[in-house]
Design goal:
With 419 residues, the chain is mostly helical. 79% of the residues lie in helices and 0% in strands. It has one domain.
Length: 419
C-alpha cells in the first residue's frame, strides 16, 4: 500500500506540472517517513553519500568539453571532412550532416550541443544548396539526438549511476544501435534527396579536409580508445577530452581565446546548477528505496499483471514513449531508471540492454511534442515554427522506432561489442 501511495504522490505532482526537484523532494520526504528513520535531516546525509562518486565528475567535464568545441572550430572541421567524403552521393550534404553529428556526438556526449554545433553550419548550407527546408531541419534535429546514444553519453552515465550499471559496458552497448541509427538516417537522406545534384569526389579536397580536421578526428579515437582499452576510466577520459579540446582549440587551431573559455564555464555552471541538485535527490531516493526493497515489491506487483517478457517490453516501450513526450531525458532516467531496471532483469533482460532501450525511447522523446527538447531548442535557434518542426521530425521518428523494435527484439545488437 505504501508503494502505491508513493506512485500516486509522484503521479499527482506530475499532473500538477510541478518542477522535478519538488517532485523528488516530496517523494523522498514521504519515503524517509515511511521506510527510513523518520528524520528528514537524514535526507541531506543520503544526498552527500550519493554524490560521493568519482563518476559524477565526468558530467561537468563533458559539458565543458562540448562547450569548448562548440566555441572553437572543431565542429566546422568535422563537417568539412564529412562533406568531402559524401559530396558525390545523392543528398550528400544531408549524409554529411548525419555523419558529422555522429562524430561530434562521440566527443560532446550531448544532444543539444551536437544539434547547435552542426546545425548552425549545415542548416543554412543545405537550404542554400536547394534542399527542402523541412528535410534540412529534420536532419539537423535527428542528427542531434545521436548525442545521447553514441558514447560517451551523459544520459548513459546518469542511467549507470542510478541503476549501478557499468558505464563502460553501457558505452560499448551504445555503439551498435548508434551505428544502426546513423545507417538508417543516411540511407533515408540519400533516398529523400535522390534528385539533388552531386559533386565529383576529389582526393585533393578530402586530403585538405583531413589535414585541417585531423586533430578533431583524433578526439573520439583518443577518448573512446582509452576507455575501451582500460587505459583510463570514463571520468579520467572526460578530463583527457577536456584538456585535449583546450589544447587544440587554444594552441593548434587558435580559434578560441581565454575570454571565450570564461563563457563556456559559465554556461556549464548554469547547466550543472540545474542538473546536480536533481541527481543528488534522485540518487538519495534510490538509495533509500533499494535499502527497503521497494523495487522488489514493485516487481512482485507487476508480475501479478504481466507474465510474458514480450508483453513487458512492449508495455515499457509504450510507457517510455509517452513519458519521453512529457519529460526531459534526465528527468525520466532519474525517476524511472531505478524502478524499471530491476523489473527488466526479472523478465530476463540484461540491465545494459534495457538501458539502451530506455535511452532510444527517450531519444525519440527529444523529437516528440509537447516537451521535445530538440524541438524547443531548434525553434529558438533556427527561427522555425513548432508545427513545422514536428512535421519535419516525423520520418526520422519512424526510423528510430524501427531501430527501437530491432534492439528490443535482438539484444545482440547492443551486446555485440560488450561481448
Amino acid at each position: 500500500m505504501s508503494t502505491l501511495i508513493l506512485i500516486a504522490l509522484v503521479a499527482a505532482f506530475l499532473l500538477l506540472r510541478q518542477p522535478l526537484l519538488v517532485i523528488l523532494l516530496a517523494a523522498i520526504a514521504y519515503a524517509q517517513l515511511i521506510w527510513g528513520r523518520g528524520q528528514p535531516d537524514w535526507i541531506m546525509e543520503d544526498m552527500f553519500v550519493s554524490l560521493d562518486k568519482e563518476l559524477i565528475l565526468a558530467i561537468p567535464m563533458f559539458m565543458l568539453c562540448g562547450g569548448v568545441m562548440t566555441k572553437g572550430s572543431t565542429a566546422r572541421r568535422l563537417i568539412e571532412v564529412a562533406r568531402a567524403l559524401t559530396g558525390h552521393l545523392p543528398g550528400g550534404l544531408g549524409v554529411a550532416c548525419i555523419l558529422s553529428s555522429a562524430i561530434f556526438a562521440a566527443i560532446s556526449g550531448s544532444s543539444i550541443v551536437t544539434m547547435i554545433a552542426i546545425g548552425s553550419v549545415l542548416y543554412p548550407a543545405m537550404k542554400e544548396a536547394g534542399y527542402s527546408p523541412r528535410y534540412a531541419i529534420g536532419a539537423v534535429m535527428s542528427g542531434g539526438t545521436l548525442g545521447i546514444v553514441i558514447p560517451p553519453s551523459i544520459p548513459l552515465i546518469l542511467y549507470g549511476l542510478v541503476t549501478e550499471t557499468s558505464i563502460v559496458d553501457l558505452f560499448l552497448a551504445g555503439i551498435g544501435p548508434g551505428l544502426l541509427l546513423v545507417l538508417f538516417f543516411a540511407l533515408y537522406s540519400i533516398f529523400a534527396n535522390r534528385h539533388m545534384k552531386t559533386t565529383r569526389f576529389s582526393w585533393l579536397v578530402l586530403g585538405k579536409a583531413l589535414r585541417e580536421g585531423i586533430w578533431a578526428l583524433m578526439m573520439p579515437i583518443i577518448l573512446l580508445g582509452g576507455i575501451y582499452s582500460g587505459y583510463y576510466s570514463p571520468t579520467e577520459a572526460a578530463a583527457v577530452a577536456l584538456v585535449y579540446a583546450l589544447m587544440i582549440e587554444l594552441f593548434v587551431h587558435k580559434e578560441l581565446v581565454i575570454r571565450d573559455y570564461r563563457d563556456v564555464v559559465l554556461d556549464a555552471v548554469k547547466l550543472g546548477g540545474a542538473l546536480f541538485p536533481l541527481i543528488a535527490v534522485a540518487l538519495s531516493l534510490n538509495l533509500l528505496l533499494v535499502d527497503n526493497r521497494v523495487p522488489d515489491q514493485m516487481v512482485d506487483l507487476i508480475r501479478g499483471w504481466i507474465s510474458s517478457p514480450v508483453t513487458f517490453i512492449i508495455a515499457v516501450n509504450v510507457l517510455l514513449l509517452v513519458v519521453g513526450a512529457f519529460m526531459t531525458t534526465a528527468e525520466a532516467i532519474l525517476i524511472l531508471g531505478p524502478i524499471l531496471a530491476p523489473m527488466a532483469v526479472v523478465y530476463g533482460f540484461d540491465k545494459v540492454v534495457f538501458g539502451i532501450i530506455m535511452i532510444i525511447n527517450l531519444e525519440i522523446g527529444l523529437l516528440t511534442p509537447p516537451v521535445g527538447l530538440n524541438l524547443i531548442v531548434a525553434m529558438s535557434a533556427f527561427k522555425e515554427k513548432f508545427g513545422r518542426l514536428v512535421r519535419a521530425a516525423l520520418p526520422f521518428i519512424a526510423l528510430m522506432i524501427i531501430v527501437l523494435a530491432l534492439v528490443s527484439w535482438q539484444p545482440q545488437i547492443s551486446l555485440y561489442f560488450v561481448n
